[in-house]
Amino acid sequence: MKGYCGTILRINLTNREIKKEKLEEKFAKKYLGGVGFGAKILYDEVPAHIDPLGPENKLIITPGMLLGTGLPTISKTAVNFKAPLTGAYGRAMAGAYLGEALKKAGYDMLIIEGKSDKPVYIYIEDDKVEILDASNLWGLLTSETHEKLVEIHGKGVRTGTIGPAGEKLSRISGIDFEERQAARGGGGAVMGSKMLKAIAVRGTGSVEYHDEAMIKELIRKWANIIKEHPATEADMKYGSGEFYEWMNKERGTFPTRNWQYGYMQKVYDNLKEGEKSHLDPYYWSPKYTIKNRPCPRCNKPCGRYIEITDGKYKGTRVEGVEYEVLYSLGGVLEIDDIGAVAKMNKICDDYGLDAISAGVTLAWAMEAYERGLLTKEDTDGLELTFGNDEAAVKAMEKIGKREGKLGELLFNGSREASLKLGKDSWKFAIHIKGMELPAYDIRGAKGIALAFAVSTRGGCHLTAGV
Question: Which cofactors go with this protein (predicted)?
């Protein structure tokens, strides 16, 4: 069956059993790959009422069908599970090199089930599959874990790791794929519940296709179309946040101050002619960008490494900052300091937090504090007001570490935090089905309101055909 590896890799962490199963042609033709494979296996094999953090849950990693062909912009890998955050269907996506490596190693899908009795990681090198001790990795940040795995297995190994938040079972924790995050829904907690610190893959093979010449011609044509498209230059210069100003000034659909406003009111109401918000990539990207960083096989890299070279967050270096993060760690907290946003972005990446959920949950706490529902005793002494970037950075570290009263309160997202606090604070917890909302204010975009309501995974703009 050309176009597929033909093998499903199944690993049971309870009994250490490793199986290689045949990918049936009928199944492949019906569900294609990626999300289709993952959703079907999850539906068939994971009962509806199991505990998302129990051994019955499964972590199903499914590279996109065309991943490995070399086709430009074909980069996504899906991670499928029952979501700890919502209790429902969970699926997180990332432009992950690990997915391509998995296919090169000979596998169309990786299914991880059961639970280890001690910290472990999975190492895959073509036919060789091992479950290895991870005691020396447990407790490390995601970036530190990746570096250790490269030391052990050599340059070129591809990784997916969790940080301390996933180890401690935060329902807003994700999986880091070399600074590309499959973040939404709590997949990091699923890995942590299985005592699985990381997955490392090295693949040296290739997938055979029916018409290799056609694939090469498609690569050439598609690469040229992208190169010549009028939006490509702006995407590469300014990234996914290039329309930040338009969303604020023209549409009024950039939620700020925990969704009290649809634009950065305190900034845009006071800007002088020619001035930019400090969250606007047209302000910060030329100033701080070191280099572009694409997803696998993408010739239109909208990702970038930035380094803050001035101010109190000088020296902060991170892969970002994406549009959603400008919202969740900036606008929704009413913070107009790209240095602070970059610092919190780095904290989320290293501790393995979903930056959207973590930021929106912190915004809920800021509103609760300003309403007098939380006190300094509850916030571990932090003056948790909107716009207080120093308090926000310290609070984000507390969430990542599950530290203090504040870290404990916010560790599992805004729905759980509001239910713990009570006092009608659920009324300003911004989530659907438990998942915090992304950066699109429904008051100015009615179609997005419907999309959020019917999304299969909760408050998400990516799973409702929008």
Answer: [4Fe-4S] cluster
